[in-house]
Amino acid sequence: MRKIGVEEELLLVHPDDGRPLALSGRVLADGHSHHLQAELQQEMIEIGSEPEEDLGALRASLLRHRRMADDRARAVGARTVAIASSPLPIEPHLTRDERYDWMAAHFGVTARRTMVCGCHVHVDVESREEGVAVLDRIRGWLPVLTALSADSPFHEGADTGYASYRSQIWSRWPSAGPLPVFGSVEALDAFERSLLSTGVLLDRGMLYFDTRLSSRYPTIEVRVADVCMDVEDTVTIAALTRALVQTAAAGWRSGDIPSPLPAAALRLASWRASAEGIGGSLVDPGTGEPSPARLVIDALLEHVGDALDESGDRERVASGVDGILRRGTGADRQRSVLSREGSLSAVMLDAAEITARGTH
């Protein structure tokens, strides 16, 4: 069974009105760990689960670290919120260290004002060769994960018209977005060297693509999801990601050819997922054409069905996806709360409560 690890970026907010607060330094005053770290802006922190095989254990790990982060935030007069973009206007405060200072100097407003929270899923691979094969074969399905996790309809006090506006903000980085098909480790290495040789990026850590193969651990990192308020949605996204990796690896071993869909077309598919979420159309990876979102989601479940059976996750994942389709994504909930309460502060505080208890 492949292990899964999850990183979640969280906002620190005022407990009364939901305003983001630049308090990460105080929250982390007792020291960083691989489970709790600073992020680009002082209004953010990142938590990380232990690598787990079992989805129940992964859920428990995420809840444990969410609560640890919230306890630390409460101790300094704040709350933590799993929301992918602040509904309230905010002037972010850059975390001051050498790396982030360099990024601000070179990327200007992109670094200074990027304050969005993603969910990054790490899945074991057996070798770099298998890792590249997986990168090549999961590309077309990643926009579906964006749609299912959408949790950022508001930004800077306005409805953006998107379900996942985080995706749009993140695409401003020059090294973000979908990858081409590589076919070999050598081709991936040459691709990364060519980008780093431009001098635009500080280092390999700034390769912000939708997926990447770790240089330190035998893992694939998938970076397309918004952070989800409901921890069960996070677990569903993580399980689908593992099933995609397992399906891709099995396809590579059996000689399946990766889809030749160009990166430019995948960027458009990602845009559609970001804009419409689960309520409109998604690009079907098989045809490259739009199809009702629910049909494409069903196709994803069919595509990874054998892998879900192997891991024993089919029933839980099917239930998790059904829950998202039935009640809506975090973006749908945020718009519903605004319609009912008439306040973006209420949207943020509602998200804080869901983050704390883990579920709707």
Task: Give the key terms.
single chain, 360 residues, alpha+beta, Creatine Kinase, Chain A, domain 2, seven-stranded antiparallel sheet, two-stranded antiparallel sheet, 15 helices, 11 strands, 48% helix, globular, ATP-binding, glutamate-cysteine ligase activity
Protein topology:
Layout: E1 4-13, H1 24-27, E2 36-38, E3 44-48, H2 55-75, E4 79-81, H3 98-107, H4 109-113, E5 118-124, H5 128-138, H6 142-149, E6 154-155, E7 158-159, H7 165-170, H8 185-196, E8 211-213, E9 219-226, H9 231-253, H10 263-276, E10 281-283, E11 290-292, H11 293-303, H12 305-311, H13 314-327, H14 330-341, H15 344-357
Largest sheet: 7 strands, antiparallel
> H/E series, N to C?
EHEEHEHHEHHEEHHEEHHEEHHHHH
Which CATH class is shown? Answer: Alpha Beta
What share of residues are in beta strands? 5-15%
CATH-level-2 architecture: 2-Layer Sandwich
Measured as a percent range, the helix fraction is: 40-55%
General form = globular
Q: Cα distance, first to last residue?
A: 29 Å
Total count of helical runs of at least 4 residues:
15
Beta strand count: 11
Q: How much is the radius of gyration in Å?
A: 19 Å
- Mean pLDDT, to the nearest integer, reads 96
